Task: structure prediction
Amino acid sequence: MFHDDQHGTAIVVLAGLLNGARVLGRALPDLKVVVSGAGAAGVAVTRLLQRAGVRDIVVCDSRGIISPDRRDLTGHKARLAASTNPRAVHGRLGAALEGADVFVGVSGGQVPEEEVASMAPGAMVFALANPTPEVHPDVARRHAAIVATGRSDFPNQINNVLAFPGIFRGALDAGATRITEAMKLAAAHAIADLVPEPTADRIVPSVFQEGVAEAVAAAVRDLASDAGSRHRSAPA
Result:
C-alpha cells in the first residue's frame, strides 16, 4: 500500500530523523517522539518510525494524547493507543512535549512557544503544516537544535517528491506488485544516505539535487528483486 501524502511524508520524515540523529549523536531507539496528528499522515509516520526502531512515540489528536484511558477512541485510534505511549502519558499536547526529543507536526494548528521550550535539550522539530507550520521556524530555532518544515523557503524541506518518483520507478523495474514496508524503509535510508555529511541545516537532500530518484529507485529495486528471488527459491 502506498499513498504519497501518507507514506511519502513518513519516508522523508524518517530520512530526516535518521540524519538528525546522526548530527546530534543520538540513536533512534532512545528518542522520545511526539506526533501531532492522528490522521492518515500521522498514522503512517508513527508506523514507519516504529518499524525503524523508535520505541517511544506519543500520538496526539485535537483532544490530546491518545492513550488507553481515553473512552472516545475507536478504529485506528484505538489501535494507536494499544501500540504507542509506553510511558502512559496523558493530557494535552503540552504534556506530551515535556522532555520530548522530537516533535512531528502533521495536523496544522499552532503549538505555543512555551510548550516547545519544554522539550528536551537538543530537540528536533518537524513542523510540516504548509504554508503555516505548527511552530514557526524562527520560534522553533530558539529551543530546538534541528528544525524542518514543509516549506521551500527554510532549510530541511520535508517534501514527498524526494520519495515517490524513485519508489514507483524501482517497484516497476523490479516487477513488484505492491509497495512493502521494507521498500519504504529502504527508500528512507537511501534518501538519508544522499547527505553523507549532514548538518543541522541539511538533513535531507534538496528537491533539486540530481540523482535522488535514481538512488531511491535502485534501493527499492534491489530490495524487491532480492525478495522476489528468495520467494521463488523457497521450497514448495
About this structure: The longest helix spans residues 212-233. The beta strands are 32-36, 56-61, 64-65, 102-105, 123-127, 144-149. The chain has a mean pLDDT of 93.
